[in-house]
TrEMBL record:
Keyword tags: Membrane, Transmembrane, Transmembrane helix
Protein name according to UniProt: ABC transporter permease
Organism: Bifidobacterium choladohabitans
Chain segments annotated as transmembrane: 12-32, 44-64, 84-106, 118-141, 147-163, 175-191
Length: 205
């Protein structure tokens, strides 16, 4: 628990960010609800609800690449994999919680885009899960923040403009990509445990 507390202390700003975004979007929806019709608000919400997904990917890219001290970490009992996985779980947990609160708030106000009932919560939660898992994999393979950040944007663009428009059922829309993303994260977890490889890669930067 002490180790988790240390990581939380270092990451608290990024942990708070998704909740600040959620509060801002909910406030915008509450204000617009009183002056605009639902038909005008929903396109705005469609844009705003994508912001937490982008922020989650970029935050994860920063968290996993912003501290290149692999040699030091691998020389301790903690290990690089424990550091990276703990950071991933902290930042992903915060973003998933905030995404759930955002959906609940907008769903109650009837402002969630393409709302198909409570099952639609899988859309924002699944998006963040997929983006973060795949960013974790890219971060392990490249140890590069620019590459990981670009990967998060590319994954988001794929979901928004290629996958989501053609797969409208929320469960089918997210289930297959989530399985692929989870497999990628498991592969990254295994790669992250190669201590010698980690040290050589960062030493070569």
């Amino acid at each position: 628990m002490a180790f988790v507390g240390i990581q939380l202390k270092r990451l608290y700003r990024l942990v708070l960010l998704p909740f600040i975004l959620t509060a801002g979007i909910l406030l915008a929806g509450f204000v617009l609800e009183g002056i605009w019709s639902l038909s005008r608000i929903r396109p705005v919400m469609m844009v705003l609800t994508q912001v937490p997904v982008i922020a989650a990917g970029l935050s994860t890219a920063f968290v996993l690449n912003g501290d290149p001290i692999v040699e030091l970490t691998e020389s301790t009992p903690t290990g690089w994999r424990k550091v990276q996985v703990t950071r991933l779980l902290i930042i992903t947990g915060a973003n998933l919680t905030a995404a759930g609160l955002l959906f609940i708030g907008l769903h109650m106000m009837r402002l969630w885009p393409r709302d198909q009932g409570w099952v639609s919560i899988i859309t924002p939660v699944g998006s963040i899960f997929m983006v973060n898992c795949l960013v974790f994999l890219i971060a392990v393979l490249t140890t590069s923040m620019p590459t990981s950040s670009l990967a998060s944007i590319a994954i988001w663009l794929f979901l928004c403009f290629i996958w989501d428009p053609y797969i409208t059922d929320p469960v089918r829309q997210r289930l297959i990509p989530m399985i692929i993303a989870a497999a990628g994260a498991i592969f990254g977890w295994n790669m992250c445990g190669d201590a010698e490889r980690n040290v050589v890669k960062v030493a070569a930067l």
